[in-house]
Amino acid sequence: MDAAHDFSYTPNYDGSIASLSYPSGRVVNYGYDGAARPLSATGASNAYAQNALYYPPGQLSSLTEGASGNYSVGLTQTFNNRLQPINFTSGTYNNGALVATLMNLTYGFNLGNGDNGNVGSITSGGMKSPRSVVLMPDSALCHEPKLPLDVDLWISMPLQAA
């Protein structure tokens, strides 16, 4: 490969990446906490990701990305006591105040006797009107959720209105 197209990186002593250099000359520096979890990814004039916070078991709680001046995009996740994702929200912020919700996914797990760990429903909100999907187990593969009419979840985005 031509040297003009090579990436290079500088490792930390623990093997994690301290910085990554792109062929264009751009350098991205990575910051970590004491548990070796990524906290930030910054460049000379850009903050690609920063202020990462984690729950004690290790899941990402929140993150600010793409900060430019007073504007940024923020991500937030919440989990229940079984460490199942309950909500994933993304929004734009100005000086820390929410300007617009870009995405808001709420997961349902049939709490109580029916909670076997499978996602039972997903409700989406944000820039478009709220949408929802109810996931039903397939009779042949009970651990694999299927949508009504065998619509593949990955192909059906955006979700059909309820």
Task: Produce the secondary structure layout.
Layout: E1 8-11, E2 17-21, E3 27-32, E4 38-42, E5 47-54, E6 60-68, E7 71-79, E8 85-94, E9 97-108, E10 121-126, E11 131-134, E12 136-137, E13 145-146
Which key phrases capture this entry?
162 residues; single chain; 2 domains; mainly beta; two-stranded antiparallel sheet; 11-stranded antiparallel sheet; 13 strands; globular
Q: Your description of this structure?
A:
- With about 160 residues, this protein is mostly beta strands.
- The chain has two domains: about 1-40, no CATH class; about 45-150.
- It has strands at about 10, 15-20, 25-30, 40, 45-55, 60-70, 70-80, 85-95, 95-110, 120-125, 130-135, 135, 145.
- An eleven-stranded antiparallel β-sheet has the order 1-2-3-4-5-6-7-8-9-10-11, with no helix packed on it.
- A hairpin with a 5-residue loop joins strand 3 and strand 4.
- The protein is globular and about 55 Å long.
- The protein starts with 7 loop residues before the first strand and ends in a 16-residue tail after the last strand.
